[in-house]
Write a structure and sequence with these properties.
Pfam families: Methyltransf_25. The protein is α/β, with parallel strands linked by helices. It has helices at 16-34, 51-57, 75-84, 123-136, 155-163, 205-210; strands spanning 40-45, 66-72, 90-94, 109-114, 137-148, 167-172, 179-186.
Length: 214
């Protein structure tokens, strides 16, 4: 998979990816609208070109309060994200987004974006990453995540994993579209961020599907 070309679907308004982006952006706006006064810390895991967060911050009244870190492996995508982030307090890191060390200093965050992650890793790694969100999110912090809803639909299971880890369901997209967007809010106390730990192994949806691991 060429992860630069993958982003082309964002520019087609009728594509599933474009529709998912709009749903994620609506939830980011809602989260920022409801955030208490003061700084808002944001982490984006497997951030790609940062369309979800950066397009919202472009005109959001809380843009000056946001301090964000985007982590993405593909340097072509991070270059585009960095250009779009000009003038914002946004750090763009080119590196393995699974590594906890990339989030040190900003975790626990008020908003954690796990978009484009759960469809590309194994089910055991999804569960491990949900657990790791207790180290990335602050008390009262929001995690926005995505996962395709084509069969087998794993969205209900992911919701159960979050809710077993002291996350409250704030919103989940309807099951009548082929993409899923979930929003969970952490009511627990954040756990210490483990050093030099990988939360998951990014496999890729096509490879998982071919191996029967979706």
């Amino acid at each position: 998979m060429d992860w630069l070309d993958w982003h082309d679907a964002y520019h087609r308004p009728d594509s599933s990816l474009s529709q998912r982006l709009r749903a994620v952006q609506a939830q980011i706006r809602r989260t920022l609208d409801g955030a208490p006064a003061g700084p808002v810390r944001v982490l984006s895991v497997c951030a790609g070109q940062g369309h979800d967060l950066l397009e919202v911050l472009a005109d959001h009244p809380r843009r000056g309060d946001v301090k964000a870190r985007l982590v993405e492996l593909d340097a072509r995508n991070t270059a585009m994200a960095a250009a779009a982030a000009a003038g914002l307090d946004v750090e763009v890191i080119t590196g393995d987004a699974s590594l906890t060390d990339h989030y040190r200093g900003l975790a626990p965050a008020d908003l954690v974006l796990m978009c484009g992650v759960f469809g590309n890793i194994t089910l055991p790694d999804i569960e491990r990453t949900v657990d790791a969100c207790r180290r990335l999110a602050a008390t009262g912090g929001t995690v926005i995540w995505t996962r395709g809803r084509t069969a087998p639909d794993r969205v209900p299971q992911i919701c159960e994993w979050f809710e077993a880890k002291e996350f409250d369901r704030a919103w989940v997209s309807e099951p009548d579209v082929d993409y899923g967007v979930g929003v969970h809010r952490y009511r627990g106390e954040p756990l210490p961020l483990e050093e030099n730990t990988s939360m998951f192994r990014f496999v890729g949806f096509a490879e998982l599907q071919a191996a029967g691991l979706t």
